[in-house]
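[step 3/7] inverse_fold.run input=structure_tokens len=182
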């Protein structure tokens, strides 16, 4: 999957050029500084998952196309077997696996997230919509706006994703399911 991650910026640039959208217009359309956008497209800077959603929406394509280079195939049921989600490592300390990558026209994005306490926590992010996190194992500190919540296995949180938010593992590796609705 590492090869696919390296190909994401190339796919974005190719699709943007096909759609005849300039890099400066794309940056403005997704509300990212032009310099940052060009670093994303050059592969010099990791693209946050929330920005991937904005880019795919602007390009009129599914996020799966950006991640894998393939269109999702299923429109009634999509099964994702254990360990078979599309792996994404977009922030230091976070590893994502997209669990519904093969379902067309998703209205939510379910992700399995692995947090490594040995890595620097990611800076808070914001994105459109709402987010739900369900802790599977470990202890996770979730910051939403200026409040911190310590959640353990079986705990969950639902919040307005337009507020700055971040998750970090407390002491040991942690896993949780996040469902993002934009």
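[step 3/7] decode complete -> sequence:
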């Amino acid at each position: 999957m590492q090869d696919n991650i390296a190909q994401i910026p190339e796919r974005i640039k190719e699709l943007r050029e096909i759609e005849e959208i300039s890099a400066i217009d794309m940056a403005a359309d997704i509300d990212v500084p032009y310099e940052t956008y060009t670093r994303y497209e050059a592969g010099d800077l990791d693209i946050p998952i929330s920005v991937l959603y904005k880019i795919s929406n602007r390009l009129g394509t599914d996020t799966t196309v950006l991640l894998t280079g393939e269109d999702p195939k299923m429109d009634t049921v999509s099964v994702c077997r254990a360990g078979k989600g599309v792996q994404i490592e977009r922030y230091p300390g976070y590893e994502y696996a997209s669990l519904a990558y093969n379902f067309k026209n998703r209205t939510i994005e379910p992700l399995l997230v692995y947090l490594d306490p040995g890595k620097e926590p990611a800076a808070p992010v914001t994105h459109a919509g709402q987010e739900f996190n369900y802790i599977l194992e470990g202890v996770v500190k979730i910051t939403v706006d200026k409040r911190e919540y310590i959640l353990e296995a079986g705990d969950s949180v639902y919040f307005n994703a337009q507020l700055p938010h971040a998750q970090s593992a407390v002491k040991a590796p942690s896993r949780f399911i996040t469902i993002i609705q934009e």
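[step 4/7] annotate
DSSP finds five helices and nine strands in the chain.
The domain at 2-68 is CATH 1.10.260.40 (434 Repressor (Amino-terminal Domain)).
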